[in-house]
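[agent] plan:
  1. take the single chain provided in the ticket
  2. run structure prediction with default settings
  3. attach structure tokens to the ticket
  4. add a short note for the reviewer (M.T.)
[agent] executing step 1
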Amino acid sequence: MANVTNQPCANITLGGANLTRRITIALCIIGSALPAHAQQEPLTIGQAVEQALGKYPAIRASLEQVSAAAAGINLARTAYLPRADFLGQVNRATRNNVFGLLLPQGVIPSLSGPILGANDLTNVWGIAVGVLVSWEPFDFGLRKASVELAGASRTRREADFSVTRLTVSTGAADGFLTLLAAQQIVLGARAAVERARVVDQVVSARAQSGLRPGADAARAHAEVAFAETQLVRLEQATEVARAALAELLGLPSAQVIVQPGPLLGPPPQMQPPSGSLTTHPIAQQQQAAIEEVKEQERVLDRSYYPRFYLQGSSYARGTGARTDGTTGGAFAGLTPNTGNWAIGMTVAFAALDLPSIRARKEIQLHRERSETAQYERVLQDLQGQLERAQAQYRGARRVAENTPVQLDVARAAERQATARYNSGLGNIVEVAEAQRLLTQAEIDDSLARLGMWRALLSLAATQGNLEPFLQMAAK
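[agent] step 2 finished; step 3 output follows
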């Protein structure tokens, strides 16, 4: 048991105790005897869902993906802006130039100027500064398609986020109900242990006095041991359920305390499902995947067009080399003394890209068909899940209507078996069997109502919206 230690307790001295000090010491002793989780407020199922949505890492990760996709739209829009490239360069090099062709490459530096007709290793300074501004005045819709593709990617990430929220919310609510059910089973098991101990005390006393055989006492001892073993196992299952819920809530398991609220009673009558399954987050996620593929196809449709660039450049160069073969002074060429400007239009057309574009469009077409088939499968699966959830709810309600009768009969049977044993007409086996049936009936009765709530949760999750369920659970 964890003790609570606070600052006032740490500063208390026992000498010279007056009334205030005695009260403080008493409060500290009481506080240190309380478990740490007693300070934690119990959570309702709505608060548990809210806590999970606020702290579970998958939610934050999905939200950051949405933000990244939104930033991708801004990136795609920058294609509408002109591009400006600045250049500055200083070099010290020889000036030998040759006549002839050199294919485009990135290894050998280019050299301008006349051919000197000599191989002289004299070197001079050279400098160059310039700027090139380039802009596409029109692009046949390519940039717009790229922006729309980025928007489709953001829509898909938003759909992913909605699915993650639904998954985490459903998991937290289901974990809450699981823990609550485990606690109810433990309560029934503890009652069974107490009943077994009472019978054990009565039977042992009668066996010692010779009114009952020793075999009855042995059987009563065995029933107590069996009930205690079952209680230990159920308490272990309860702690496992508590740890699973704590994982979703981002809390230590010792701080997870659930408040049943109306969940231990029967839920209100279920309303017929409304709305289309196409609004379910999973269906919308798949629909967003289809739209993203279609946008990729539109980008490819606009890729096989010429690219027009309106360009303007201004630059200046300086060199220590002269056309007559001589060179300037030691610092000649360190200043840009010759300038130029230019403006024009450049057209670039990758004529041989058509086969690769067609191949990529075919890939996207097959992806679109695949995503469409997945969308149809999702709707079919959701419809099946909805029908199963409805059947589960109907069955759970019928069970909940029957368990009170089962409980009343089990209680009467246990009283009769005990009375028969006390009067000498029955045996210990009948009492043990009646007590087990009573324990099972108590557990079944408490779980029957939780079963209806769990079925309602399944219905809400299948419809993609937990709010109606959480509103019912909060009343």
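[agent] step 4 note for reviewer: Residues 1-38 have pLDDT under 50 and may be disordered.
[agent] ticket updated
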